[in-house]
Amino acid sequence: MSAVGLIQRLAPGVRWARRLAQIAFIVIGIATVNFFLLHLAPGDAAEVMAGEAGAATPEFMAALREQFGLDQPLYIQFGKYLGNVLTLNLGYSFRQGLPVSRLILDRLPATALLMAASITFALVAGAALGFLAARRAGHLTDTIISVIALLFYATPVFWIGVVLIVIFSVWLDWLPVGGMATIEAGYQGTAYALDVGRHLVLPAVTLGLFHLAIYTRLTRASMLQIYGQDFVRTAVAKGVAPGRIAVRHVLRNALLPIVTMLGMQLGSILGGAILVETVFSWPGLGRLAFEALFQRDLNLLLGILLASSILVVVVNIAVDLAYGFLDPRVEIS
Amino acid sequence: MISRRSFGSAVALSTLVFAAGLRRPGHASEEPRRGGTLNAIIQPEPVSLTAAVLAAAPTGIVGGNIFDGLVKYDRDLKPQPELATRWEISPDSRTITFHLREGVTWHDGQPFTSADVAWSLENVWKPLNPRNPALFRNIARADTPDSHTVIFHLTEPSIALFSMLNGNGAQILPKHLYEGTNVLTNPYNLKPVGTGPFVFKEWVKGSHILLERNPHYWDVGKPYLDRIVFRVIPDGAARAATLEKGEIHYAPLSPIPLRDAERLAKLPTIKVGTEGYDWLTSWLYLDFNVNSEPFKDTRVRRAVAHAIDKDALIKVVWFGFGKAAVSPIPSSLKAFHNPDVPLYPFDPKRAEALLDEAGLKRGPDGIRFTITHDYLPYGEDYRRTGEFVKAALKRIGIEVTLRGQDTAAFTRRVYGDRDFQLASSWSSTFPDPQIGVTRLYTSEFVGRNIPWSNGSGFRNAETDAIFKAAATEPDPAKRIAAWKRFQVIAQTELPTLPLVELKFFNVYAAKLRNAVTRGDQIFGPLTEAWLDEPAKSQ
């Protein structure tokens, strides 16, 4: 208690400084663990490139290792890496011949677009379905929604993706199979935006369905829990309209776990994207990270992991702040 | 040998009717049509577009459209003029004079001259050729008496050199863009400037590579296509769907699983073919680790050979697609292949007798000994090959544990740490075994952590001597005799067990014509290809 009291007495500036120091500590810790964990993997980037070439000579391998800095002892590699982390330099991908920051920035818009679209879809549709199920708890609507949610929750993402492709692209011919734009068409402006939109539908839906199921179940469960509380009974007794109760009193109070989930979904931005980006040839970050792992492009992979760990930390803070906003009883320390 | 991951789904297609050529008889006299965009699949995404610095298959496929070679190889793998219009070989086989095509320009407008060839030899082929740099180091110097003549002075005669002079094996880089730079990191490796029929336009990583027609190509009137879009489609099912939908006209390197290929080949809009890979000639094999138990003993290796029914393997796993391999030089290299070697027919009884003789008797549980088999991690077909081997060896009392891993772990284990017992792999021979076979048997490379080179750990003074002598032997007949002798030793000692002569396939849209016109087409340009109905212009 005294520690909390002490923090509360400190000026907000000091509190934030303390918080930032914590973040820096966490990020450096993650970076260190990542570095050594990834270096445990057998094989290196030079071997992978020689393997892909199908043939190599000792001289070629030595030239690659020297170029990649792999001929240096591990502690020197780690020192360089740590120096880069401290100066927020993400390093250089020798395999791709480009700085890691450039590679990430090139891929970020595609992933961000896919994420935004799928999260919006999952959140809006999931909350709506959960709301409907909670209001009709025990009825047929509720059962149907719950079964559908369970189905989406249990079905592997890549399988949904392939099935959607077969139905909507191959059979019905409504939407493109994959990619982000019709390359040979050379669209500009609005036509380009529409074209990207058409390419976005299937991957966004595929990626969103799993989280849609989670939001549906969460919304339903937490609304039902709140329906049982005294203030709702009071509102009913006062004669407030059921719809108003559901929205103003129940849904608003049920939002907290959903915000938690949203934070977690944002944090898993890369993990979920890998499969969907692969199935739909979407040129995003998830695939970049996944391929970097198999290619032992550790600079690139470490860069992506560092960037995403920073993102997760930042999202966590944002979620904490959102709690305070949604429910003033939650204190931010 | 070509890109490995891309062939993860390499399959066999016994039930398919392969198009003998893409040209249908009814269209044989049709005039090629200009125009249109060719949509192609490239998978996996290349790392570089310059084969001179990285010999991976996706690099070769895309880059092959941007660069020309001194020569190209026809369907009989004979060199034909490309940037060299003609050449002369001196009577002592030590001097080769190339006369270069005049009026050829690089895509940036600079003239192509003999200086580019001489510079590439010294700075690219000699230090960086991954397949057989000795081939080029044997060229003591290159003279350029004028801007369109190059004379190679060889230290020793070299017949194999003439199998590596196309745009993939000896890619000529523009001296004016590379001189004084680090060739490995030169930015033009990612945005190449060549002399070929297509010009590099853009590469959106993770999405596509766009090439456009070279309007100043020396072969006037060609190419026929306006542009080529190579799309990166990482998922096999999605590749099959794009092909089925007709979004893609050309998909090389066994791009889809067998089941899909079989289904798609029945569609009127799609054709499946195996042409254009002649220059590679690939075969699948098992490497025994001859330095450790139990495969130290030749009898044990021979027992394994007798235990595996190659024909059944081809039928069950490779769907009849391929041919039983009997020696390290595939039968399609007719001059070099030696069918007269120890053959190890399928005979489990003989296998068991050999194991008994080696003192490895069945235990009370029927098991003689247990081994771990590292199968090549290139997907389904190779894993199933491993399962087939496991079942076959179980029959003769050898218990096999299969071990899966990713490619980097596999190559480190087999070629670096040598911590394995039995591994599978495949390799390309190229038209001359000196290029693709030496590497797999020479003692020079054992345990030096060089992927795909002598995985078995075989050391044999006689074969080493054969490789050395055959490399500089000017008499083709003597050279062939030496290579035939090598095959007898290789199959007697059996450090490596040849299993299947592999065939890879392409999937094409039926309206794509003349996609294969040369023996090295897979790494060559689509100069002659045309679309029967030009893609709708938008």
UniProtKB/TrEMBL annotation, chain A:
Q: Membrane topology type, per the record?
A: Multi-pass membrane protein
Q: Which residues form a coiled coil?
A: none
Q: Which UniProt keyword terms apply here?
A: Cell membrane, Membrane, Transmembrane, Transmembrane helix, Transport
Q: Which SUPFAM superfamilies does the UniProt entry name for this protein? A: MetI-like
CDD domains for this protein: TM_PBP2 (cd06261)
An annotated GO cellular component of this protein is: plasma membrane
A Pfam family the protein falls into: BPD_transp_1_N
Per UniProt, subcellular location reads as: Cell membrane
Where is each ABC transmembrane type-1 domain found? 108-323
Spell out the InterPro entries in the cross-references. BPD_transp_1_N, MetI-like, MetI-like_sf
List the GO biological process terms.
transmembrane transport
Chief location of this protein within or outside the cell: membrane
Q: Where are the transmembrane segments?
A: 20-41, 108-132, 144-172, 200-218, 254-280, 300-326
Protein family (similarity comment)? Belongs to the binding-protein-dependent transport system permease family.
Name of the protein this chain belongs to: Peptide/nickel transport system permease protein
UniProtKB/TrEMBL annotation, chain B:
**Localization terms from the record:** Periplasm
Give the keywords, sorted: Signal
Q: What's a single GO CC term here?
A: ATP-binding cassette (ABC) transporter complex
Locate the Solute-binding protein family domain: which residues? 78-443
UniProt cross-references to Gene3D superfamilies, sorted A to Z = Dipeptide-binding Protein, Domain 3 (3.10.105.10), Periplasmic binding protein-like II (3.40.190.10)
Q: Which domain of life is it from?
A: Bacteria
Q: Which InterPro entries match?
A: Peptide/Ni-bd, SBP_5, SBP_5_dom
Which terms under GO biological process does the entry name? peptide transport
List GO molecular-function terms, semicolon-separated: peptide transmembrane transporter activity
- The answer to whether keyword Acyltransferase applies is no
Record carries keyword Signal: yes
Where is this protein primarily located?
Answer: periplasm
The record ties this protein, via Pfam families, to: SBP_bac_5
**Family affiliation:** Belongs to the bacterial solute-binding protein 5 family.
Please state what the protein is called.
Peptide/nickel transport system substrate-binding protein
- Which taxonomic lineage does the organism of this UniProt entry have? Bacteria, Pseudomonadati, Pseudomonadota, Alphaproteobacteria, Hyphomicrobiales
